[in-house]
Write a structure and sequence with these properties.
Elements (H helix, E strand, L loop, with lengths): L1 H36 E7 L5 H10 L5 E7 L4 E7 L5 H10 L11 H6 L10
Antiparallel strand pairs: 1-3, 2-3
Length: about 120
């Protein structure tokens, strides 16, 4: 009876370790596939202040964008995104739609005029 019990426990331990190994391998594969789709880029976005920072970063809080940070001193946006869900062009269009000029698109004029006075910069 003790031998059967030991065999059963050994079988259970083996099956559990095999399952954990399989799950870990699947997770590693998913992370690798996700990393292939991830892209981090920088580009210029015009603006002036902390309110601009809040507006610009909020405009790209969408599916596919993992991280977005705009620096008000350098005017540089650093963004990490899943390029299978959203393109760089779509991201810059979203920023332009709330009134801010980017390297690719001029900000929406109506949205720009509604920005706080401190956010209105000299446009090209």
């Amino acid at each position: 009876m003790k031998v059967i019990k030991k065999i059963a426990i050994a079988s259970l331990v083996f099956a559990t370790s095999l399952t954990v190994t399989t799950v870990n391998a699947q997770n590693d594969k998913m992370k690798t596939e996700s990393a292939k789709k991830a892209e981090t880029v920088t580009f210029k976005v015009w603006g002036n202040c902390g309110t601009c920072k809040k507006n610009i970063e909020k405009s790209v809080k969408v599916d596919g964008v993992n991280k977005a940070e705009w620096n008000k001193d350098t005017k540089i946006m650093t963004i990490s995104f899943d390029n299978s869900k959203i393109t760089l062009e779509q991201i810059q269009k979203k920023i332009a739609s709330v009134g801010y000029d980017t390297e690719l698109f001029k900000g929406n004029d109506k949205a720009y005029t509604k920005l706080d006075k401190c956010c209105q910069y000299d446009r090209k």
